[in-house]
Design a protein that fits this description.
It is built from 13 helices and 13 strands. It is an alpha+beta fold. Helix 4 runs antiparallel to helix 5 and helix 11 packs antiparallel against helix 12. The longest helix is centred in the middle third of the chain and has 21 residues. The protein starts with a strand and ends in a 38-residue tail after the last helix.
Length: 422
């Protein structure tokens, strides 16, 4: 386990991605919306300053949006995903070991850098990422993941740190913990923070000094690890390879209510392809599938409907044609005419490693042929984009797609959206 961690966190990541290719947005309030342009899920610093709350439906803050000329964008996950990959690629220049913690956060192993000027190195990371990708980041360095996370948090608020802070000195760690509320420690949520207050544990320093028995009793084993990490004892190593998921789900709300089963089938088939791609990426196969569809949760009484159906496979599979066939059969069993459906999706269950697949004696599917087909499709999609090859079951018009009326161009992944210099 490494003895020194750096956490690099992109500042207001979604909003920053929009600004990279549209400099006129600098200094202007920017917000990014959730699926179907519903709620605010990302805000620039300027948007936070005028009081735009996270998670608020757009229509409820429309007056504030107009009053301050806030720039509003639909979620452009294709752009954000590619920009995230570029940031990670840049970070790999500074450490051979990088853990991608989330789309906008990564941990670096700096265990062999103690003889380096860590403050200068952290600033170099910060400046290089900004120069190479255009994304502003904050860098926090500490002897544990939890302390690196704390250093990162403080670096964003401290003018002196200016986005790069190293917490390795015992005095500085103590002062940082005393100025941090227990509820602001990574892994300590609102519920635990309220519980800790009843035991007079108010700051991160108070939390560091509780006994192991207290932490284990009131915060479980996970909380005990957090307490030990606050003391400078590493309990979490870098996860270079994410652990395989135990189940995989894909679902989306429709851009508008749907009544025809054919359109729901198109959406479900598209979700199956996405799910199966994730399944193969982690080299797993599914032994079962749950398909569901539902109306809006806010529909009037008598217009509410939701149902699901679970299908078990004789042989675990990652084949899209096979999964689509099972999914559509399950959908037709739960579909009821006369309802306005707003969402469908599927959950792949009972996942097993592809390397330890046990075939059924009654299996009639040509597994080798399906495997070759999936390998070919994955190669084409990786080269030309995920929508380059599809199935007739996915349809062509796809009127059920998400509503993205404020979508910015995919500047880095589509030739048609490349910036033009005049």
């Amino acid at each position: 386990m490494t003895s020194l961690f750096a956490l690099v966190d992109c500042n207001n990541f979604y909003a920053s991605c929009e600004r990279v290719f549209n400099p006129s947005l600098e200094g202007v309030p920017v917000v990014v919306l959730s699926n179907n342009d519903g709620c605010i899920i990302a805000r620039s610093a300027e948007a936070k300053a005028i009081g735009l709350p996270m998670g608020k439906p757009l229509f409820e803050v429309q007056k504030l949006i107009e009053q301050h000329h806030v720039q509003v964008f639909s979620s452009n996950y294709e752009l954000y995903g590619d920009m995230s990959a570029r940031v990670v690629e840049t970070l790999s220049q500074f450490s051979p070991h990088v853990e991608v913690y989330s789309i906008d956060e990564s941990f670096l192993d700096l265990g062999d850098f103690y003889k380096t000027d860590l403050v200068a190195y952290a600033r170099t990371i910060k400046e290089t990422v900004k120069l190479w990708t255009g994304i502003p980041v904050a860098v926090g360095v500490g002897p544990t993941k939890t302390l690196a996370k704390l250093a990162n948090r403080i670096s964003k608020k401290s003018k002196r740190a200016d986005g790069a802070l190293v917490l390795t000195d015992e005095y500085h760690i103590r002062e940082a913990l005393k100025r941090t509320e227990a509820g602001d420690v990574w892994g300590i949520g609102h519920r635990y923070a309220k519980k800790l207050q009843s035991y007079r544990v108010h700051t991160a320093w108070d939390l560091r000094n509780v006994t192991d028995a207290f932490a284990k009793k009131h915060l479980t084993v996970v909380g005990l690890r957090t307490v030990k990490e606050l003391r400078g004892e590493p309990c979490q190593d870098l996860e270079m390879v994410p652990p395989p998921k135990k189940n995989i789900c894909t679902s989306r709300s429709f851009g508008a209510a749907i009544t025809q089963v054919e359109e729901i089938e198109e959406a479900l088939s598209t979700h199956v392809v996405r799910c199966a791609t994730k399944l193969r990426k982690q080299k797993s196969r599914a032994g079962a599938m749950t398909v569901f569809c539902m109306t809006s949760r806010f529909a009037a009484e008598g217009e509410l409907y939701s149902n699901c159906r679970t299908v078990y496979f004789d042989t675990p599979t990652d084949s899209e044609p096979e999964l689509i066939r099972y999914a559509l059969k399950a959908l037709r069993e739960i579909y009821r005419p006369g309802f306005r459906y707003r969402k469908t999706g599927l959950l792949l269950l009972d996942l097993v490693p592809s390397s330890s697949l046990q075939l059924s004696l009654l299996d009639t599917v040509d597994r080798e042929k399906h495997a070759m087909l999936m390998q070919t499709l994955d190669g084409l999609r990786e080269r030309f984009g995920h929508s380059a090859v599809g199935y007739a079951a996915q349809g062509t018009e796809q009127r059920w797609k998400l509503r993205q009326e404020r979508l910015s161009p995919c500047y880095t992944t589509r030739l048609s959206d490349l910036l033009r210099v005049r």
